[in-house]
Amino acid sequence: MTRYQSNAQLKTLAKDRLTNHYRTAVTVFFLAWLIQFVSSETAERLVPSTTVPGTALFLCLSFAVSVAAGVLDAGISCFFLHLACGRPCSLTALFYGFREQADKALSLSFVSGSLRLVCFTPWRLVFRQYLLSRAPGFLWLTLACLAAGLFVYVPFSLMFSQSFYLMLDFPGCGAVQILKMSARIMKGHKKRLLCLEAGFLPLMLLGFLSLGFGFLWLLPYRQMARTFFFLDVMAPDRPDSHV
Q1: 8 A C-beta contact, residue 80 and residue 122
Q2: Of 29, 36, 140, 146, which has the fewest CB atoms closer than 10 Å, so is most exposed?
Q3: Closest C-alpha among 161, 167, 163 to residue 194
Q4: Which residue, 74, 48, 71, is CA-closest to 61?
Q5: Cβ-Cβ contacts under 8 Å for 44 (sequence gap 6 or more)
Q6: Cβ neighbourhood burial of 19 (10 Å; 0-12, 13-18, 19+)
Q7: Got the DSSP string for 13-48?
Q8: CA dihedral defined by 176, 181, 182, 183, rounded to 10 degrees?
Q9: pLDDT digits (tens, 9 = 90+) for 156-191
Q10: Terminal CA-to-CA distance of the chain, rounded, Å?
């Protein structure tokens, strides 16, 4: 019978592996956040969104920026996969998606960015109207759009959640093959990953209460647990086979 690690075991592996590596892991996430923040702020300042055409142009530009910045997710996956497997890793891994397999990294980022665009643009637009009018009807419509967006986004994001790890493990496969492979290996594991993610919600709340400083500790921990989840799905019954 196939035996997979529990979420508690995955978290324990994550904490153990991050020992003596937290500073570098935090720096990786901080650099990624800084690049994404500067890119999004620049896009917002370049295009005024006070008119309908301006809003449409701003959304297009924001989407392009998010797709380009999303390539950093390949680098984050590379850093943590190397760390989980006991391989040498450095800050330069963050830019892996721009140096290696750039076409596939951009394609995978485009898919995830498109999913977010389709699922969350409606509630952003309606919420903007609520802020302008303060009409209660727009508030309820915002909540309904957000709920509908999450209903679509969550299962698809879980389905494709292993794409960047698979891109690293199977460099000979194309982007479409990687997405199909991710969907295949996640059959029967989506609920398990969802529970793993939900387990970090209390810590995320503490992160907000600490004015965001808690995320410097939480995000590497969460990503490391996700990485061990991938390794466990790919090699069950061997909890330390990659360590």
Answers
A1: no
A2: 140
A3: 161
A4: 48
A5: 58, 62
A6: exposed
A7: HHHHHHTTTHHHHHHHHHHHHHHHHHHHHHHHHHS-
A8: 90
A9: 999 999 999 999 999 999 999 999 999 999 999 999
A10: 23
